[in-house]
Amino acid sequence: MEFKDLLIFKTLAEEGNVTKTAEKLCYVQSNITTRMKKLEQSLGATLFYRHSKGITLTSKGRLLLKKGEEILRLVEETETLLKEGDSPAGHLTIGANETTALVHLPPLLTTFSMQYPDVHLSLQVDSTENLVESVLSHELDGSFVVGPVHHIEVETLPVLNEKLVIITNSEEPFNETNPSHQTLLTRPNYVHHARIHEWLNGNGIRPARTMEFNTLEAIISCVKAGLGFSVLTKSLADYHRNDGYLHYHELSASSFQTIFIYRKDGLITKAFDAFTKSIEAEFLS
Q1: Of 257, 255, 235, whose CA–CA distance to 147 is shortest?
Q2: Which of 75, 105, 199, 228 has the most CB atoms around its CB within 10 Å?
Q3: Strand order in the sheet with 90-96
Q4: What one-character-per-residue DSSP string does 93-136 give?
Q5: Mind listing the pLDDT tens digit for each residue in 246-283?
Q6: Where are the membrane-spanning stretches (predicted)?
Q7: Where do the H-state alpha helices sit in 17-58?
Q8: Element (H, E) at 78
Q9: Across the strands, what pairs with 119?
């Protein structure tokens, strides 16, 4: 089995179509078809179900895809390490949840970019659940997420402690009789959903209704307008309190930790090593 055949096979599995695969790899379609048939013959296994809409992997095909992706990744990582110079360079793709990206990362990213101009850093903002999956699938080199994360393949680095607060549009004590304190504004699949409702229930607070928003900015704007109340981190509340229309109320036993995670078997380039050291200098020193 040739390395080029493995690359073609992976691309064909992803595209599900010979025409699209040929266009993506700049090959003629007949070359793709011939090489895949020879690959199946050399392995003694049927890798594809062929039908009018394209191709679908067989169980043997799915096995080869899984192992093939590992082989291709190892080859890419080896080439990266061999091409590394004396100073950090190359690409880093880092993830972060929305609060961390907005409030805590700008100074870190600015300092890192100035210190290591040859490192091309990109940031992907998403939910903790999606970010963990992206790290596990090698789509991200590492990510800032809400802890804890318990996974045998993941290494964790504590970054900072956060605290949840109730936010409203007035300094008055939280009171369910206040119309603006009767509607909980939150996000779908919010990572703190269980923690919030546990606290509300423990304090006898029963929101009359719940409204969901896709962004924190929308939630904060609606809280300021008096639509309802929400629960978010104290650091984010402080970030948005400059206009006097947002106030927060402390919650008891509402602390959690933001952590940086990466795969234990992930590639530790000079750029990645420099980034983790920058995290430690920014948050842990």
Answers
A1: 257
A2: 228
A3: 119-125, 90-96, 142-146, 247-263, 154-168, 230-233
A4: EEEE-HHIIIIIHHHHHHHHHHH-TTEEEEEEE--HHHHHHHHH
A5: 888 887 767 899 999 999 988 888 899 999 999 999 99
A6: none
A7: 18-25, 29-43
A8: helix 59-83
A9: 90
> Going from the N-terminus, what domains does the chain have, and what CATH number goes with each?
3-83 (1.10.10.10), 90-160+258-284 (3.40.190.10), 162-254 (3.40.190.10)
**CA dihedral of 80, 85, 91, 92, whole degrees rounded to 10:** 100
pLDDT for 179 beyond 70: no
pLDDT in tens, 89-132: 888 999 999 999 999 999 999 999 999 998 999 999 999 999 99
SS (H, E, C) 191-214: CCHHHHHHHHHHCCCCCCEEEECC
pLDDT of 280:
95
24 token code pair:
């993506």
Q: H/E element holding 281? A: none
Amino acid at residue number 132: V
Burial zone of 160 (CB within 10 Å; 0-12 exposed, 13-18 middle, 19+ buried): middle
Token couple for 163: 């605290």
| Residue range 124-174, pLDDT digits in tens | 999 999 999 999 988 999 999 999 999 999 999 999 999 988 898 888 777
Give the C-alpha distances (Å, rounded to integers) separating 66 from 6, 61, 78, 138, 233. Answer: 11, 9, 19, 13, 39
